[in-house]
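user: Please review this fold.
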Amino acid sequence: MPLSRTPRTVAAMIALLLAGGITPTAASAETPAPNWSGLDARFYSGPIAAPGQVISAVPLDRGLTVQGAGDAFRLLYSTINQHDAASVSTAAVFLPPSPPPDGGFPVIAWAHGTVGLGDDCTPSALPRSQRDNIYLSRWLSAGFAVVASDYVGLGTPGTMSYLNGVATAHAVVDSVVAAHAMGLPLAPKWAVVGQSQGGGAAIASARWASEFSAGRGLDYRGVVATGTPANIDELVSKAGPDLAIPELGPIANAYTAYILAAFREARPDLPIDGVLSPAGRDAAAAAQEMCVDQLSTQLESQNIDQFFTRPLNSIPGLRDALADYMGTPTSGFDRPVFLGVGLDDHDVPPTSTLTFYEQLVANNQQVELRIYPDADHDGTVLASLPDSMPFIRNVFTS
């Protein structure tokens, strides 16, 4: 289903896709103070071993656990960041309340949606949203352990590289490797599941799961991605002051600011500030600290086109740089892919997932698409469970 390339449609798609992951998963207008469960890694400066090593692990504060979980932990582990350098990330690990089966619990790696870039937005240090609580609890009650990475830069040194596929894949895969080194009853088989920003992260993790975990004794089986913002690098590259961007809610401004802040940090060799207006530079600076609702309120009186003095693609090499940073892989998947899309999704347009599905089919990838006509962005997560859970059970036994 090809995308229309008229300026007005592209502008609208940019606006909507930039808001990929629009529904907050751990942040609110008054984000509570983080609870580090006794493991505050914001300023960690100790040694970093090879990726996937446990640096420290503590019991997760019971106020931060998922309903119906058994033992839960907060984990600090080694990984690789967006600059291809040794780094650290944190994760929450939830075990089912039941005794483990022979061979241990199979594992679901949960890739979270957008919360912000600042340490105060760290998912494992905040209560889960009602939706995520219900969703993750369903996987636990089905007998799966859940490993939920925060991604590098949330509660750890550095900047969370928002929508950066490879960096996020390292964090997700290495969280699973590290969880298996904790001495917990975990089986080698694992899959990755994500929604919105996390849907993109899940797809990237799936593409490199086997490669990044090679030699670690794990058995990657497949991926579930819902509300997936695919191919948005092509649209972001068209951002600038002259597009006829329609009137938007403030959330789109916030997500644009997150992309600008994270992309600028990842690619300091590109003169991104040179195409930003003072308002754009201020928005990117605020994005480095503010969680999603707070930033949305901060920017509610502005429009995306006010962030630019020149088109982003006036920067030489910009298009290729964006593709490297946030491009969606469309081939190279060695395990099945499940895509769920709600046709009432006004945060990430359904065409994003539908076009991505067609690309995977054209590249002979093993992919299953499920469409939920009445589901919006948030609702697709739970609506997909009757289909996605059997899909996961099947790939674990095939």
Notes: Residues 1-29 have pLDDT under 50 and may be disordered. The CA atoms of residues 130 and 335 lie 30 Å apart. Strands lie at 54-59, 72-80, 86-94, 105-111, 145-149, 186-195, 219-226, 337-342, 367-372. Residues 250-266 form the longest helix (17 residues).
